[in-house]
Amino acid sequence: MTEVDEHGRPEPPLAGDEVGTLLTFLDYQRATFAWKCEGLDAEGLRATVGASSMTLGGMLKHLAYVEDDWFGHWLHGLELQPPWDEVDWDADPDWDWHSAAEDPPQELRELWQAAVARSRVRIQQAMAAGGLEYLSLRGWPDGRAPSLRWMLVHMIEEYARHNGHADLIRESVDGTTGE
């Protein structure tokens, strides 16, 4: 059984196998992000720091998109679903970030939580079909395709980077600090 810390984050195994280590580190980063967004109202989710326009609400929507994009669109070759399929990404490549300002907090949280739940299923499907070596069904223009292993490491990096942003924003909102 995986232990969790005081913030509900799963403790990655100190000597686990590669799959367990990668999946638990990704869940640890997801749980850290959830902790940083926990309990905030619309104003808190729209707060910015310094010259940046980045918000926790924007991060919720962006990370929901990134989950669906990597583990649905890229990994399994699925077409994007609502709301992502309705966006003119060429006209507005940062739609996920700034459109969040108009969304209610609960809707943003549910959008992200649903995307994470879909990703967990899709990761397990890829694991069953080929393990960490499973290659995405979509690839780069040169024909190369990232493996599930690459995507998991990329997503850990994505969350870790945004968790640093989330730390600064959350502290500016109500003084909450921590890892």
Q: Care to give the gist of this entry?
A:
With 179 residues, the protein is mainly α. The protein has 6 helices and no strands.
Describe the structure.
With 179 residues, the protein is mostly helical. The protein has a single domain, classed as Four Helix Bundle (Hemerythrin (Met), subunit A). It has six helices and no strands. The chain has helices spanning 18-37, 42-46, 56-76, 95-98, 105-130, 148-174. Helix 1 (18-37) packs parallel to helix 6, helix 3 (56-76) packs parallel to helix 5 (105-130) and helix 3 (56-76) runs antiparallel to helix 6. It is globular, with a radius of gyration of 17 Å.
Shape: globular
Q: Just give the CATH class.
A: Mainly Alpha
Runs with pLDDT <50, length 5+?
A: none
Percent range for helical residues? 55-70%
Helix-strand makeup class = mainly alpha
What name is given to the CATH topology? Four Helix Bundle (Hemerythrin (Met), subunit A)
Mean pLDDT: 95
Q: How many domains in all?
A: 1
Characterize the largest beta sheet: strand count, sense, and whether it forms a barrel: none
Alpha carbon gap, first and last residue: 23 Å
Q: Write down the Rg.
A: 17 Å
Report the sheet-strand fraction: under 5%
Total strand count, please?
Answer: 0
Order of helices and strands: HHHHHH
* Superfamily (CATH H level) name: dinb family like domain
Q: What is the name of the CATH architecture?
A: Up-down Bundle
Number of helices in the DSSP assignment? 6
Organism: Nonomuraea soli
Protein name: Putative damage-inducible protein DinB
Pfam families: MST (PF04978)
InterPro entries: DinB/YfiT-like, MST-like
